[in-house]
Specification:
The structure holds two protein chains of two kinds. By secondary structure, chain A is an alpha/beta fold. Chain A has one domain (4-246): Rossmann fold, CATH 3.40.50.300. Chain A contains nine helices and ten strands. By secondary structure, chain B is mostly helical. Chain B has a two-stranded antiparallel sheet. In chain B, helix 7 (180-190) packs across helix 9. Chain B is globular, with a radius of gyration of 19 Å. Classes of the chains: A alpha/beta, B mainly alpha.
C-alpha cells in the first residue's frame, strides 16, 4: 500500500439540527481511486466540500502533506494540490472553451497571472490545446460554453481542474447530466488522464456500474457517517449498504 | 501584435493632437474635459469587466482635483506633471485603503457603498469652509516643466497633455485587458467559484481593478480641475458619478477608444442640447442613452469588437 496522501480524522459538521458529518475518518493512499456513495443528503458532497475548503468543519483534522488543511480557503487548498470538479460544471459561460483553459493556465503558470503577458500567447494556447486534445474536446475550442453538450462541459470542468499540479482530484458526480451513452467514454477519458498523471482520485457517484468499474475502494455514507469502507464488491454486498444506499435486496 | 497597438497609439495621438491646431477654443476645452472624464470612465469600465459598477467614482475625480488644487495653492506647485503625479499617488493610497473593503461586495451593494464613500467626501468638503466649502477653490494655470504658457497656448498645451495621458492610459489599459490578469477579470465576472477553485483570489482581482479605477479617477480629476481652474464639492456629487456610469454604459467594455468616444459624445450632446433645449436637456440625454441601450446593448465598442461572448 502506498503512503497516505490524505488523512481525515473525526470530522464533524452540523447545519443547525442536521448532522451532515459525524466522526468521519478516512486514510487515502497515494494514487488510489476512491468512490463515495450514498443517498442524497448522506454527506458525500459535504465531505468533498470540507476537504476542498468550501465548508469549514466544526471539528476534526484533514491532513494533507503534513499540514492540517481543515478550514483553509479553497484557493489555498487548490494551490497545495487538491483540485476539484463540480456536480454542475463550473465554467466561465461567456468565454470560449480555449479561454476557459487559458484562465486555468494563467492561474497555474509561474509566477502566476501577469498584467503584461498576453492571455492568448502562443505558449499558453499550445498548452491549452494539448490539454483539450487530451480530453478529446479540442474541436470545441472556439465555442462558447452555452453551446456545449453536458459531456463536453464536464470534461472541460475536469480539464481546467487538471491544469495545475494536481495531487488529489475530487470529482463530484462526474457523470451527472451526461447522456447515458457518453458516461463510460467520458469516465475512461478522465480516469486515463488522471491515472497517467499519478493523481489520487476521489469521486462521488450514484451509478454503481461506474463505481465498480473505476474505483479501487468505496466509502458508503449514510446519515453523515461512513457505514462501509472497503473494496467495491465487499461494500456493495454489505447488507447495511444495500439497505440504506443501493436499495438492492440483501 | 504590440507593434499594432503602438502604431494605433501613435496615430491616435497625432489625430487627437491635431485638434489643438484645428479646433476652436470652446471645442478644445470641451474635448479636454471629455477626455479627462473619459479617463475616470475607463476605470469604471475596468471594474465592469469584473462584474461590478462603481457609482462613486466621483470620489477619486474629486480627490484628485482637490489634491492638485490644495498642493498648488499651499505649496505653490504649478507643474502639471508633479500635480498629476501627486494626486494620482493620493488616489492610489485611498484606493488601496478602500479597495479591499469594497472587493467583498457585489452588485448593488458595491455600487451603493462606492456611492456612499463619494457622498461622504461631498458632505465633508461642503462643510469645510477653510477650503472653500460649497464654493470650492480656484487653481492657477499650470506650468509645463517650467514653461508657463498663456491664452491659447495654455489651452493647446493642456489639451495635448490630456491627449498624451489618454493615449498612454489607453495603451496600458488595453495591455491589461488583453493580459492574463485581464482574462482573469472576465472569468471572475462569469464564475467566481471556478476562479477560487483554480487557486486565484477573486478579492485581489477586484481590488486591483478598483485601485486602477481610483488612479485613473484621480488623474481625470486633476486635469479637469486644471482645465476649469476651479474645483468644488460637486466633483464628488452623485450626479457626477452618474455621468461617468452613463459614459461607461454607452461605451461598453469591449473597446478602450469607445470610452473616450462615448465621453466626447456625452459632452457634445449635453452642450448642444443645453444650448437648444435649456430646460429639457436631461430628457434629450436620457432618450439618447435609451436609444443606445436598445440599438447597441453591448455599447459603442461592439461596433468594432470581433470578440465572441458578452463581456460588456
Amino acid at each position: 500500500m502506498n503512503k497516505a496522501v490524505l488523512e481525515v480524522r473525526d470530522l464533524q459538521k452540523t447545519f443547525g439540527a442536521v448532522t451532515a458529518a459525524q466522526d468521519i475518518s478516512v486514510t487515502v493512499p497515494e494514487g488510489a481511486v476512491y468512490s463515495l456513495i450514498g443517498s442524497n443528503g448522506a454527506g458525500k458532497t459535504t465531505f468533498v466540500n470540507m476537504v476542498t475548503g468550501y465548508i469549514k468543519p466544526d471539528s476534526g483534522t484533514i491532513n494533507f502533506g503534513n499540514r492540517n488543511i481543515a478550514g483553509m480557503a479553497p484557493r489555498q487548498i487548490t494551490r497545495l494540490g487538491i483540485h476539484r470538479s463540480f456536480q454542475i460544471a463550473q465554467l466561465c459561460a461567456e468565454l470560449t472553451v480555449e479561454e476557459n483553459m487559458l484562465v486555468a493556465d494563467a492561474i497555474h503558470g509561474h509566477p502566476g497571472p501577469s498584467f503584461l503577458r498576453k492571455a492568448h500567447n502562443a505558449e499558453a494556447r499550445e498548452r491549452a490545446l494539448a490539454t483539450l486534445e487530451r480530453f478529446h474536446i479540442a474541436e470545441h475550442r472556439d465555442r462558447l460554453v452555452p453551446e456545449l453538450s453536458g459531456g463536453v462541459k464536464k470534461l472541460l470542468d475536469i480539464a481546467m481542474a487538471m491544469a495545475g499540479e494536481t495531487q488529489i482530484m475530487m470529482l463530484d458526480e462526474p457523470t451527472s447530466g451526461v447522456a447515458a451513452d457518453e458516461k463510460f467514454p467520458i469516465m475512461d477519458l478522465v480516469m486515463d488522464a488522471l491515472r497517467s498523471a499519478g493523481v489520487t482520485v476521489i469521486f462521488v457517484e450514484h451509478d454503481m456500474d461506474i463505481v465498480t468499474r473505476y474505483s479501487e475502494r468505496v466509502l458508503a455514507f449514510y446519515d453523515g457517517r461512513i457505514i462501509a469502507d472497503d473494496a467495491p464488491d465487499e461494500v456493495l454486498s454489505d447488507p447495511e449498504v444495500q439497505r440504506y444506499v443501493t436499495g438492492a435486496p440483501a | 501584435m504590440r507593434i499594432n497597438l503602438l502604431l494605433a497609439a501613435i496615430i491616435a495621438f497625432v489625430v487627437l493632437a491635431a485638434g489643438s491646431v484645428i479646433l476652436p477654443d470652446w471645442a478644445m476645452f470641451l474635448f479636454a474635459m471629455a477626455l479627462a472624464k473619459g479617463l475616470v470612465c475607463l476605470g469604471i469600465v475596468g471594474m465592469m469587466r469584473g462584474g461590478v459598477v462603481s457609482f462613486g467614482q466621483g470620489l477619486y475625480y474629486c480627490l484628485g482635483a482637490y489634491t492638485a488644487t490644495l498642493v498648488a495653492n499651499t505649496f505653490g506647485v504649478s507643474d502639471i506633471f508633479l500635480l498629476t503625479l501627486l494626486s494620482s499617488a493620493v488616489c492610489l493610497l485611498v484606493g488601496m485603503a478602500f479597495g479591499p473593503l469594497l472587493s467583498s461586495y457585489r452588485g448593488i451593494f458595491f455600487a451603493m457603498l462606492s456611492l456612499a464613500l463619494s457622498m461622504v467626501l461631498y458632505g465633508s468638503l461642503s462643510k469645510m469652509s477653510f477650503i472653500g466649502g460649497t464654493d470650492g477653490l480656484n487653481i492657477a494655470a499650470p506650468t509645463f516643466l517650467g514653461w508657463a504658457p498663456e491664452g491659447r497656448a495654455l489651452q493647446m498645451a493642456l489639451y495635448i497633455y490630456v491627449v498624451a495621458i489618454v493615449v498612454i492610459a489607453g495603451v496600458l489599459m488595453r495591455i491589461y485587458f488583453d493580459s492574463e490578469r485581464g482574462l482573469l477579470t472576465l472569468a471572475t465576472r462569469d464564475n467566481e467559484l471556478r476562479v477560487e477553485y483554480l487557486g486565484a483570489s477573486v478579492r485581489n482581482v477586484m481590488t486591483y481593478n478598483y485601485v486602477f479605477g481610483a488612479v485613473l479617477g484621480g488623474i481625470g480629476g486633476t486635469i479637469a480641475a486644471l482645465a476649469l481652474g476651479h474645483v468644488d464639492p460637486e466633483f464628488a456629487f452623485w450626479t457626477t458619478s452618474g455621468e461617468f456610469v452613463f459614459v461607461a454604459i454607452l461605451a461598453g467594455s469591449l473597446s478602450v477608444p469607445s470610452v473616450f468616444v462615448a465621453a466626447i459624445i456625452l459632452e457634445l450632446v449635453r452642450s448642444f442640447s443645453n444650448l437648444y433645449f435649456p430646460n429639457t436637456w436631461q430628457l434629450a440625454l436620457g432618450l439618447f442613452l435609451l436609444a443606445v441601450i436598445i440599438v447597441l446593448p453591448k455599447g459603442l465598442g461592439s461596433l468594432v469588437s470581433r470578440r465572441k461572448g458578452n463581456p460588456a
